[in-house]
């Protein structure tokens, strides 16, 4: 059963320029990005975005530079105003909200983790972590315990009295995550949150986020240009190109069923054995015949190949949470490793 929708984006358009409303009818009629710029000197940032963000899941929005992903996430808390469309949070269209309602949204409902950390250099780590509660009117004495709890949870319990410049980049980003968690908001927006970090630290931060998510079940919107990161984190993946959604869905499905040549090329260099899970290619049901053993539905195919020793004649039962859910044979695994070609 699917989780309920927490945020719904409906027919969202963003046009940058002096007269966006005046040129919107042309865009609605099919005018493209190049034509709009040439004829009206306006830039089409987003075109007809429709995305449901489900409660307790990580929705990853990804695309190359200029695809519109950072523009899109800033519509969710109205840091950017749309030209047309709707953004529904718990069923309410926040585009109709007044300034007081938006302040409440940003202070209590949504938190944001930025790429550049956005810590106040003159304040301690503890005070940075507690800043969200301070903006809600709490004193340092009131928010100190909560901020310290989340600093400890991200591995910085002993660093509360230090200042941001005394921390590494990865540690500063941990403070940013602790600040978002201290706010106790149900929705976390993360805009290229790990992009500025070294590869090993970035991997650690991804693992930390998944560990926290397994415990807290936040609704997370994560922006990235890195497909490996997207496939690792996403419950729901949205791929943008030139301000439009090219394909969205469960990452495993997208990898196995690219919608067009662009997506096919996009996922072409991925290590499919490491990313694809047994559950995505298995046959459902108990099945019959001889089996060499059992594997878990969430094991990746790389693990299964190692278990089989490369023997393509073997088959395995598949279990999930102790229950028998299907079977998989090695020829199916080999076939899944070959990228699908979209018909021209």
Question: What's the gist of this structure?
Answer:
Helix content is 38%, strand content 24%.
Itemize the secondary structure elements and their pairings:
Elements: E1 5-16, H1 20-28, H2 33-40, E2 43-54, E3 58-62, H3 69-73, E4 84-89, E5 92-93, H4 99-109, E6 110-113, H5 125-129, H6 131-135, H7 140-153, H8 169-182, E7 187-191, H9 199-216, E8 219-224, H10 227-233, E9 236-241, E10 244-249, H11 251-256, H12 261-266, H13 272-275, H14 278-281, E11 283-284, E12 294-296, H15 301-308, E13 315-320, E14 323-329, H16 330-336
Write a structural description.
Helix content is 38%, strand content 24%. It has 344 residues and is an alpha/beta fold. Strand 7, helix 9 and strand 8 form a beta-alpha-beta unit. Helix 7 packs across helix 8. The two termini are 36 Å apart. The mean pLDDT is 91.
Element order: H for helix, E for strand = EHHEEHEEHEHHHHEHEHEEHHHHEEHEEH
Radius of gyration: 23 Å
Query: What's the story with the biggest beta sheet?
Result: 6 strands, mixed
Number of beta-strand segments: 14
The average pLDDT is 91
State the low-pLDDT regions, or none: none
Strand proportion, as a percent range, falls in: 15-25%
Distance between the termini: 36 Å
- Report the helical percentage: 25-40%
| Large-scale geometry | globular
Major sheet: arrangement of strands = 6-7-8-3-9-10
């Amino acid at each position: 059963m699917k989780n309920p929708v927490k945020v719904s984006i409906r027919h969202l358009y963003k046009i940058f320029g002096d007269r966006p409303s005046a040129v919107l009818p042309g865009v609605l009629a099919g005018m493209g990005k190049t034509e709009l710029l040439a004829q009206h000197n306006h830039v089409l940032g987003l075109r007809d975005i429709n995305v449901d963000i489900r409660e307790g899941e990580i929705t990853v929005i990804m695309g190359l530079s200029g695809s519109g992903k950072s523009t899109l996430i800033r519509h969710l808390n109205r840091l950017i105003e749309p030209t047309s469309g709707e953004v529904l949070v718990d069923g309410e269209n926040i585009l109709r909200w007044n300034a007081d309602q938006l302040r409440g949204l940003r202070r209590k409902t949504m938190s944001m983790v930025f790429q550049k950390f956005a810590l106040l250099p003159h304040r301690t780590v503890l005070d940075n972590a507690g800043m969200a509660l301070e903006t809600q009117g709490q004193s340092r004495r009131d928010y100190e315990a909560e901020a310290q709890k989340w600093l400890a949870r991200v591995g910085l319990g002993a660093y509360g009295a230090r200042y941001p410049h005394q921390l590494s980049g990865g540690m500063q980003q941990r403070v940013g995550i602790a600040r978002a968690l201290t706010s106790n908001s149900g929705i976390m927006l993360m805009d290229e949150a790990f992009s500025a970090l070294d590869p090993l630290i970035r991997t650690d931060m991804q693992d930390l986020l998944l560990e926290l998510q397994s415990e807290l079940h936040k609704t997370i919107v994560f922006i990235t240009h890195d497909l490996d990161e997207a496939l690792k984190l996403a419950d729901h993946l949205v791929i943008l190109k030139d301000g439009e959604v090219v394909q969205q869905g469960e990452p495993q499905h997208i990898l196995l069923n690219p919608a067009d040549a662009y997506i096919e090329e996009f996922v072409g260099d991925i290590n499919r054995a490491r990313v694809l899970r047994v559950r995505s290619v298995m046959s459902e049901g108990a099945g019959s015949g001889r089996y060499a053993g059992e594997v878990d539905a969430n094991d990746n195919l790389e693990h299964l190949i190692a278990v089989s020793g490369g023997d393509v004649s073997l088959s395995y039962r598949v279990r999930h949470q102790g229950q028998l859910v299907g079977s998989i044979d090695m020829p199916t695994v080999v076939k899944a490793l070959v990228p699908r070609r979209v018909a021209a």
